[in-house]
Amino acid sequence: MKTIEGKVVILGAQGVGKTMVICRYITKMFNRRISPTIGAAFYTCNINLERGKVKLQIWDTAGQERFRSMAPMYYRNANVALLVFDLTKHSSFNEIKSWVMELKRNVDKTMVLVLVGNKSDLVSQRTVDAEEASQYATSIGASYHETSAVCDDGGVESVFVAAAAGLYDLSEENHEHLNSLRINDSIRSILNSDDQPASPSSEDCLADRSIAHGIHEKPHMCC
Amino acid sequence: MANPEAPGVDDVIAEPGIEPGASAETMLVTTDSFEEYEQEMSNSIDDRQMKESTTSTISELQEDIREAPPTPTAVSPTEPKPEPPDDLELEDNTQQLSLNSLEIDPLRNTTWLAQRKHIFILSQAGKPIYSRHSSEDKLVTLMGVMQALVSFVQAGNDMIRSVHAGDTNFVFVVKGPLILVTVSKTLESVPQLVLQLTYVYNQIVSVLTQSQLTRVYEQRRNFDLRRLLTGSERLIDHLLNFMDKEPAFFLGAIKCLPLLPSMRDAISQTIVQTCGKIKNLVFAILLANNQLVTLVRMKKYFIHPADLHLIQNLVASSESFKTVESWTPICLPKFDSNGFMHGHVSYLAEDCQACLLLLTVDKDVFYSLSDAKQKIVEKLRRTNCLEAINESMNKASITTAEIGLPEMRHVLYKCKSTAQFWSPGFQPPYTTDEEIERLLGLYQCLHHRLHAPNRPLKLIFQQLDKETMLAWVTSGFELYLTFEPLVTKPDAINSVSKLLKWIKKEEERLFILNSPTF
Ligand SMILES: Nc1nc2c(ncn2[C@@H]2O[C@H](COP(=O)(O)OP(=O)(O)OP(=O)(O)O)[C@@H](O)[C@H]2O)c(=O)[nH]1
Ligand SMILES: [Mg+2]
């Protein structure tokens, strides 16, 4: 069985719940005492798919305006972008569109995109409907998920499974042109398990000129 | 003197070696108490803009250590920045006052008007940026008046410094493109208030850098700085509350976590050995309960206590550091106001809540620092250092009663040569926030009188209603003491001498007497 390793960047406006979602996934708990991210935070996690193992290195970026110019340092080497917006704030959904344009402009290689509408528990305050979001997701070749970090019903898990599956597909599709996506067969991966990955910006792109973002995985919709 | 045995203060001074905590080695820049104030006062209007440092420590450092060709820096987004969301979630720092009347006009709200210390920040163009006790956009008119006052006096080629009306002081600081104003009913002196405003300014520089701050206003005089500061009001709020409670700021000193010197050395050495090979690492700072456990520095570079205070403020106000490794840009205004350092920030372990900051000028070394941190923690665990840190963190600070000084209630001891201070635990009556703040206020008054620019004093003995205060400054230390109200002078002096002996005996545990380098 193959083990692959990839980098994930989480992008989205301030306060949409990026940190909550990743914390929910990693700790399976809801942590009320989270403050705004300062700079960026780094997580790793392993996901077992039926097809194989995926090791994710995740950068949770800060949405505050003052950190905006640092985002390229994190998305430049990413294989997956989780684009998170707040279902109760239409402006945060609009911001996703400028993120996608920025990614298209600055990232040459193929990237898995996962669109995440968070705070689905706030049903009555909702201003972005599922239809609109999922249409937009299709138009950029992303899968679409709705999550609630407060009362999770499996949506959070589905986001990370989609990221892992997307990476897996990517590794099978374009073997030669992968950038910073590492594929190991199981034995090598054990041997190399602790060699050092590169820093956010030190790795140079092995450019794959296609801008065909996206994965062709059917979205793991939650109940 | 009634008691012939009681030594005079000079006898105590004369005792050799009684300057507890003194050391020739230090990692902190030692400062004069009113450095900021004097700098403010001596700046003429014209050189004010110029003086903001023109040299850059960070680029110097980067030059020094750049052997390998520099890796290209982050691609700057060509995309125009997305507009901020319409409904910026400005953190609401109003306490639960009668919010309704605040909504309409804070100036008509008696609770708001009665606040002991207001802080306002506005741009030179008069645009509101921050208000401590209400949302700043309700204060457009008030800030307009402040701006008018400042520019009116400026037009006469002068600077407005302070206005005094009854028990209220209005203090102004004009720095770079910003105007900072405090309206204070506390007993703090003008220099002390200037110092606090300067800290607030430095906090803003710490999140934006001086150069970015200058640039945005050069591009647009009318710029709305709140756009860049959203999320950082929290840091300013916290800093202001911190300064109301912590003597560290007016003392210009740092408090250390008490530790056996062998343990502290083991911790420092672990950091030195693990990080020694990582290039471009400038400071490694370990904080526990917001006290300094150790600080390892690159040779040649020192840290200013004011920068360390901002780091302490950042750590204390950022819950999000606790659960995860962060990679955070930090500007240290005294170190280099024009550039960011990059900080690997993490807590040592779930079972050891001490915060380690590894500060570098190289933004590409996150993963090496992350590895190093892992190794440091493993080693500290093996050598029982984590346990030692925990033990000290969990132990209540010793009180003067426990030291065997029944007539002494509390004390601040600052060692000048190392910019470190020590204070015991609070004991009755100083057990409520109000009492602690009142005590701090008394210390600040003494501090002001000792350092009054026109007539500095060496010794103050003051019998008040609720306590007797003694303050004493020598070339080696500053001492601020609180006694029972009816203590006699000889008894007080006697116990000072006992206290100094005790601190001397404990100095290796209470202070950091060496200054490890990478
Ligand atoms: N009701 C509800 N609130 C949420 C949810 N997720 C996050 N929040 C709240 O939204 C606020 C912001 O959450 P964060 O995770 O810090 O947001 P962020 O996107 O990481 O913000 P930055 O780090 O500043 O970019 C917090 O107060 C959370 O309590 C959710 O699913 N439902
Ligand atoms: Mg966050």
Would you write up a description of this structure?
The complex is a heterodimer of chains A (223) and B (518). Chain A is of the alpha/beta class and 223 residues long. Chain A has a single domain, classed as P-loop containing nucleotide triphosphate hydrolases (Rossmann fold). Chain A has six helices and seven strands. Residues 184-223 of chain A have low confidence and may be disordered. Chain B has 518 residues and is of the alpha+beta class. Chain B folds into three domains: 9-24 and 398-510, Beta-Lactamase (2-Layer Sandwich); 87-248, Beta-Lactamase (2-Layer Sandwich); 259-394, 2-Layer Sandwich (Beta-Lactamase). Chain B is built from 19 helices and 16 strands. In chain B, the strands form three sheets. Chain B has a six-stranded mixed β-sheet with strand order 6-13-12-16-15-14. In chain B, helix 2 crosses helix 8 and helix 8 runs antiparallel to helix 11. Residues 1-7, 44-53 and 67-99 of chain B have low confidence and may be disordered. Chains A and B meet through helix 1, strand 2, helix 2 and helix 3 of A and helix 10, strand 9 and helix 15 of B. Strand 2 of chain A pairs antiparallel with strand 9 (325-330) of chain B. The structure holds guanosine-5'-triphosphate and magnesium ion. Magnesium ion is lined by residues 18-19, 36-37, 60 of chain A.
